[in-house]
From TrEMBL:
SUPFAM superfamilies named among the record's database cross-references: Glyoxalase/Bleomycin resistance protein/Dihydroxybiphenyl dioxygenase
Protein name: VOC domain-containing protein
Pfam families recorded: Glyoxalase_6
Regions crossing the membrane: none
Every VOC domain range: 18-132, 146-261
Length: 263
């Protein structure tokens, strides 16, 4: 996780498979902007509208995430979704299908920003595919108020790792942890994402899913702010190998983790 804290250049090319963007689809766009604006200090400006109303979140004038409105009448989960970089979204989508995954949306053009698709691995965990053009991805990561890490929570890592390594040029590194089924995905020697097999510990109403971690400067203050803004603390703060971590949900139920790195 620590190497994911480096700020990303606004036009830096992401290696295929690199988490390069996170996006949230919600019912109440205005209320969601208010929540995250107060929580992380984000400001918002319009983004591509191909899938409906959509805004990009900015931190200190630099893009860090996207928020869109769910289509009316569709019962889709409210969840943060990471987008994985691709040099060719159409070819990546074809590979996803060939390897047992599914493609639910696209590939399609997002105006001049790039080309995207929304897919799921064989266990059902949803992720995005992003072929950046004018918009290569997040311009800032790993600082307070910005994404710092993405982790897949799944039944077990062995089979799903084969899928992701077939779609992207990942290397895997087991995480030495007694009794835990964890590994890190690397690209060019650099850690970019984690996989965590939790067996039957997955919520029955969620199933396997990706979770985004956001850096914060003061975890305790952040948790108080989440509650004051109408969110919930799902897992209280605890010490981990990369700092103090807690899991929370926004007022619509979208789950994410917040982490305060070692001082």
């Amino acid at each position: 996780m620590t190497e994911a804290r480096e700020p990303a250049g606004p036009h830096a090319r992401r290696l295929p498979g690199t988490p390069c963007w996170v996006s949230l689809m919600v019912h109440g766009l205005d209320a969601t902007e208010e929540f995250y604006g107060e929580l992380f200090g984000w400001e918002f400006r319009p983004g591509p509208q191909q899938l409906g109303p959509y805004v990009r979140a900015l931190l200190d004038g630099r893009e860090v995430a996207g928020v869109g409105r769910l289509p009316t009448g569709r019962r889709l989960p409210v969840a943060w979704t990471p987008y994985l970089a691709s040099d060719d979204a159409d070819r990546t989508a074809d590979t996803v299908r060939l390897c047992g995954g599914t493609v639910a949306v696209g590939p399609l053009d997002a105006a001049e920003a790039g080309r995207m698709a929304i897919a799921a691995d064989p266990s059902g965990a949803v992720f995005g595919i992003w072929q950046g053009s004018a918009h290569p991805g997040a311009a800032l990561t790993g600082v307070p108020g910005a994404p710092v890490w993405n982790e897949l929570l799944t039944f077990e890592t062995e089979s799903v790792t084969k899928f992701y390594k077939s779609v992207f040029p990942y290397e895997e590194e087991p995480v030495v942890s007694a009794g835990d089924d964890c590994l890190t995905l690397r690209l060019d020697g650099r850690p970019v994402a984690g996989l965590h097999g939790v067996g039957h510990g997955l919520p029955p109403d969620r199933g396997p899913h990706w979770r985004t971690y956001f850096e914060v400067a003061d975890l305790d203050a952040t948790l108080r702010r989440v509650a004051a803004l109408g969110g919930r603390v799902l897992a209280p703060a605890h010490d981990g190998p990369h700092g103090r971590v807690a899991t929370v949900a926004d007022p619509e139920g979208a789950e994410f983790s917040v982490v305060q790195g070692p001082r």
